[in-house]
Amino acid sequence: QAGSISAEATASSLKDSEPENNQCSLHPFQVSFRQLGWDHWIIAPSFYTPNYCKGTCLRVLRGDLNSPNHAIVQNLVNQLVDSSVPRPSCVPYKYVPISVLLIEANGSILYKEYEGMIAESCTCR
Amino acid sequence: EGGQSSIFLPAEAPTLPLIQELLEESPGEQSRKPRLLGHSLRYMLELYQRSADSHGHPRENRTIGATMVRLVKPLTNVAKPRRGTWHIQILGFPLRPNRGLYQLVRATVVYRHHLQLTGFNLSCHVEPWAQKSPTKHLPSSEGGSSKPSLMSNAWKEMDITQHVQQRFWNNKRQRILRLRFMCWQQKDSVGLELWRGTSSLDIAFLLLYFNDTHKSIQKAKLLPMGMEEIMERESPLLRRTR
Predict the structure, then answer these.
(1) To the nearest whole number, what is the mean pLDDT of chain B?
(2) Of A36, A48, A102, the CB nearest to B56
């Protein structure tokens, strides 16, 4: 059974080719807090680069995507069992923080490090 | 503004700590960042530049020792009757109730050590003040203060961590931390009116250093009821989003 499943999966994956630049990857993106409508309380920084993840998650997931085993299984379920179960999505894997300087409603000034503000890498899950 | 789409917060999405805090603490659209750089804003900008790069990435060699620093300006300023050559103001700093989200690691007061009023020099210092125990004597030394690294020689910084932690930090209600700002003049020439005209915003500010607790980190993973509360509160940000 394992052999037949493996053969089916391999055959399908050969058809599942995607140009490398369309595959799941990290894309740089910079925003200003003015664009977000937060510039009247965020003093610094003026800009920040949250980045985003975008692209196709192939049926055979690349090792550098750090996908959990569940993503591999979900791919197989979609392909072999039930196509209504979606394939894994390209989403951020690791995040890094940024430091922000804010002015609060009562006039206090706040320096704060916020976790999870910038996507550093992507995964399929 | 002008039809430009703003932030959409779907009802079922967990509220990010940043967004929730900003919704709670936002000064409102009509408020604008101060145009003139007072000492307090200058201090925090220097602190920010030392702790993060231009993109907002925390510097690896930062020495701030905390993940959050709040600069609190005095809310109240009461000038006391002059005692000899001593001029005294009681400064009141509002302290937020402790909800267990952050651990206070350090509290200091940065104050004007040398004050100039129309050419007359005054030497000043700060000490904690308690209404029920007025001191009859006036201190003669300024032990415990040092020059803050981000300010000129006219300023000094005094550690009051123990005082704040013992008296205020475990209190669930908002309290006022009162400090006595005392200045000594050499010549008996500075009138009370001149002294009263001294803006409390320019003579002292409080610095509170915090680290995240397990609760504050965990809060990011909770599914608020946060979202329903925000929708019900009709916050200005969401009103604008609609």
Answers:
(1) 70
(2) A48
